[in-house]
Amino acid sequence: MANALPVLIVSSQAAHRDAVAEVVRRCSLRPVFSPTLADARSILAQTHPAIIFCGDDLPDSDLRNSLEALKAARVPIIALSHLDEWSSCVDAISVGAFDYIACPPDPRETERVLRLAVEFSQGLYARHSAA
Fold first, then answer.
1. For the stretch 10-37, what's the b/e string if a residue is b when 16 or more beta carbons lie within 10 angstroms of its beta carbon?
2. Average pLDDT, the chain
3. In the 8-state DSSP scheme, what is residue 56?
4. What is the full DSSP assignment across 31-48?
5. 3 state DSSP class of 14
6. How do residues 39-82 score in pLDDT, each as one tens digit?
7. Domain layout of the chain by residue ranges
8. Is the pLDDT assigned to residue 122 strictly greater than 90?
9. Residue 4: its pLDDT value, please?
10. Are residues 33 and 58 in contact, defined by beta-carbon separation less than 8 angstroms?
11. What fold, for 6-130?
């Protein structure tokens, strides 16, 4: 898995990180963990993940500000939220999230969204490489 694409999981909730990481590994990708937005920024300075999962549970930022900060990475960001409300989903997507998963993350839904994000990400890479 050393050559597997990294997927950054930004969440302070170990149960959410573990659930997402299990799906990430099952998809032959490599999870990279961050419990805070500040830590995520440090990781992004050193590596370029294919996908980012971002929780609404960070001690140093709310979901909206986290999405704003992380979208500079120019990769799909999947929001993880304890709120299973349409308005929260719409808000996250309006700020730049690729998709939204209510927590605790359902493994099948997480895998479906992750696979779509990977396909989207590969399409973005192909378009940038051709330019």
1. bbbbeebbebbbebbeebebbbbbbbbb
2. 92
3. S
4. EEEESSHHHHHHHHHH--
5. helix
6. 999 999 999 999 999 999 999 999 999 999 999 999 999 999 99
7. 6-130
8. no
9. 85
10. no
11. Rossmann fold (3.40.50)
